[in-house]
User: Fold these one by one.
Assistant:
Number 1:
Amino acid sequence: MTGDSGRVALATLHAHLHQLLPRASLVATSLPGVPSLSLWLLQDTLGAEPLAPETINALMDAPPYWSFCWASGQVLAQQILARPECVAGKIVLDVGSGSGVVAIAAARAGAARVLACDLDPVARTAIALNAQENGVVLEIIADMHDALPVAEVITAADILYDRDNLSLLETFRTAPTILLADSRIPDLDPPGYRRLGEFTATTWPDLGESQQYNCVRLFAVAT
């Protein structure tokens, strides 16, 4: 990370994080599943001491999800980098971008334009910082709907933790190509989506989640 904008973004993220975890810090972290990418993630010290009940409640109400690289994001980023032809030269819309890992991978793989969408303004700050860390340019947006008509590829990873988001899978069908990764719904079989396979990955830093959430299923739609 270099430049004043990066330092300001990091200070903003730390200020937000400290409202939940006063001793927490973010560190630039090479990803276990995608070592060519580095993200500013929560330092792996959560298990060092018990959390107060009020801290646990605050984390449940407003989790800093952008400070983790979730298993599905790692898998989808890895697959994009391994098969850059799926995004190269295309306009990519990454929905529920979080840390920005999938959007960053798409930019690294040669996408012509990458729009990283997240409703959370703090996540958007994290995406900008992580894009700078990896030397890529992203367009960071809050509302996907204006981008849907231009998107040639839509990517999404672990957005189905909220079952209300299942309707998005039909909304995405406006794009010629969709790449979806999920570890939350074991029996997911969305109409029109082709299952490409299952992969093993761990959210980083490791939350110690049930092993079922380490199984990532990858789906695609291509027209």
Number 2:
Amino acid sequence: MEAHAADFSNLPFPGESFDLICSEGAIYNIGFAAGLAVWRPFLKPGAFLAVSELTWLTAQRAAPLEAFWNEAYPEVATASAKLAILEQQGFRPVGYFPLPPSCWVEGFYAPLEASLPTFLARQGSSAEAEALAQGVREEATLYRRYGDQVGYGFYIAQRLP
């Protein structure tokens, strides 16, 4: 087994090279559907994809939460919509589960928020850095308030021939 670090929107490997592509919290950067389209050709037929993706956990959501995420990441959708996208992109969904809140609070927001003072100091508290920090704080506050309505889902799928 080998691990590779590469630009995941432009992989430098021959087609059908991998038995598994695993991505936690990164497909978000190019979009779920776009990421699947880019990565599928690199998977061998029958190979697996394991990916976490921002997912609505409820059909009804608080207006501030929905407004924030619809602006920040318009591809946010329910698990059923994400599973349909997997099927449309030539994958057979094998499994899905929402990541527990501890992954977000303890594993993501707490360390990110703790790093903001150092980040701001390095950036000279520029207006751009302050705006970025404020966005992080707003996102974390929304999650702590409405974390039962949005989270990361973990999707496992198999590439169809």
